[in-house]
């Protein structure tokens, strides 16, 4: 597990988490709930880790919704201190991702 993902999980467990405005819009657009995304974090699989992002580290993970369908979630850590931020969440397009949704297709 990446250090970024471990820190995000710790912050979420401690309820130090917020959903960005963009994240809220994307959740609504794909009919996802923040509660569902928070619950899926326990089994998250790292897709891409952006440890050196300018606003603080972030990570793209593959999670599963309550129907076991894939969702991608970008989690960040605000200015490297916290809280954990749900930046965006979306249902990945199968035409743009590998069959396991962990690699972008070129």
Fold blueprint:
Layout (H helix, E strand, L loop, with lengths): L2 H11 L3 E3 L1 H9 L4 H7 L4 E6 L7 E7 L5 E8 L6 E7 L16
Parallel strand pairs: 1-5
Antiparallel strand pairs: 2-3, 3-4, 4-5
Provide a brief overview of the structure.
This protein has helices at residues 3-13, 21-29, 34-40, and strands at residues 17-19, 45-50, 58-64, 70-77, 84-90. With 106 residues, it is an alpha+beta fold.
How does this model look, in words?
- This protein is an alpha+beta fold.
- It has one domain (3-90): YaeB-like fold (2-Layer Sandwich).
- Helices cover 25% and strands 29% of the residues.
- It contains three helices and five strands, in the order αβααββββ.
- It has helices spanning 3-13, 21-29, 34-40; strands spanning 17-19, 45-50, 58-64, 70-77, 84-90.
- A five-stranded mixed sheet has the order 1-5-4-3-2.
- A hairpin with a 5-residue loop joins strand 3 and strand 4.
- The chain is globular, with a radius of gyration of 13 Å.
Mean pLDDT: 93
- Estimate nothing, just give the exact number of structural domains: 1
Q: Structural class of the helices, strands and pairings?
A: alpha+beta
Strand order of the largest sheet: 1-5-4-3-2
The third-level CATH topology is YaeB-like fold
Number of strands: 5
Low-confidence spans:
none
- Reading off the top of the CATH hierarchy, the class is best stated as Alpha Beta
Give me the Rg, rounded: 13 Å
Please, how many helices? 3
Order of helices and strands: HEHHEEEE
């Amino acid at each position: 597990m990446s250090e970024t993902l471990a820190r995000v999980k710790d912050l979420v467990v401690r309820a130090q988490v917020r959903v960005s405005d963009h994240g809220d819009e994307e959740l609504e657009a794909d009919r996802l709930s923040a509660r569902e995304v928070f619950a899926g974090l326990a089994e998250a699989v790292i897709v891409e880790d952006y440890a050196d992002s300018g606003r603080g580290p972030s990570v793209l993970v593959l999670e599963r919704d309550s129907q076991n369908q894939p969702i991608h979630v970008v989690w960040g850590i605000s200015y490297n201190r916290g809280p954990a931020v749900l930046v965006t969440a979306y249902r990945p397009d199968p035409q743009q991702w590998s069959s396991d949704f962990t690699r972008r297709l070129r």
